[in-house]
Amino acid sequence: MDDRLLERLVAALERMSPPPANGVDLSGADGFVWEPSPPSLMAVPAISRVAISLLKGVDLQKKILVENTMRFAAGLPANNAMLWGARGTGKSSLVKAAHAAANEQYPGALALIEIHREDISTLPELLRLLRGAERRCLIFCDDLSFEREDADYKALKSVLDGGIEGRPAHVLFYATSNRRHLMPRDMIDNERQTGINPGEAVEEKVSLSDRFGLWVGFHNCDQDTFFAMIEGYAAEFGLDISVEKLHAEAVAWSRTRGAMSGRVAWQFIQDLAGRMGVSL
Question: At a CB cut-off of 8 Å and minimum separation 6, what does 26 contact?
Fold first, then answer.
């Protein structure tokens, strides 16, 4: 066989072969996005987040998650965590802020890897890729939930339990969800009504949440907390406006959104800064 043809065949086979387990390089960035096809980690040059000091009204949640993340960054045992509760209350912001705080305390210790909800069935493949990595990894899934006839929760349950391979000690899983048990209420109720063993069927689905060692709840904020949020943002970005006017405009803005939350506070500050000609 011609040597050049042989070299081309070898090169083609190498391109088709999966990368070795120890071939993943996580040194190029602090954040990555998992792309399952073809299996790869896309580096994120700058993670979009807010400073942890600007997260108001979630002091207990902040303490719990930051302490757990710090232990993990230090190489100590830590728990998988699920942050559940009302929309716009700072769940995903807290995950990213805790990651930043841990890397500030332990420089370069943690890589934050985002996996999209629709790719959750490929989580075992991601773990196999990360087994050979030297850096500690925090896998993050935002807005995680499951619908009727959705079997992906079984893959997640297996990963959280460790399965036969076991979850790598240097990998932790954080998720946020608007649902306490990750399932819609009618899906659980339907199991009670139609299952041959309804109690067992419901237990299987509800038990998914129990696989998370930390279960942190978030709730709608009151007006005082909402004011503390916008005052913190205004001070951080140097917005020259009186407290009275700031409060009045914030209340008017929240009424157009039908809620007071961290997300609404940030959206208001963006609008206010734009009107004042201030760059954030």
Answer: 32, 41, 111, 133, 134, 135, 137
Q: Are strands 81-85 and 171-177 parallel, antiparallel or unpaired?
A: parallel
Q: Residues of the chain whose pLDDT is less than 70?
A: 1-23, 147-155, 161-166, 181-209
Q: Are residues 153 and 272 in the same domain?
A: no
Tokens 């970005």 belong to residue: 237
The structural domain count of the chain equals: 2
Q: Are 65 and 100 in contact (CB under 8 A)?
A: no
Residues 41 and 120 reside in one and the same domain: yes
Q: Are residues 211 and 237 in the same domain?
A: no
> Cα separation of 148 and 170, whole Å?
33
Q: Rg (Cα) of the chain, in Å, rounded?
A: 22
Structural domain including 269 reads 223-276
The pTM is what?
0.79
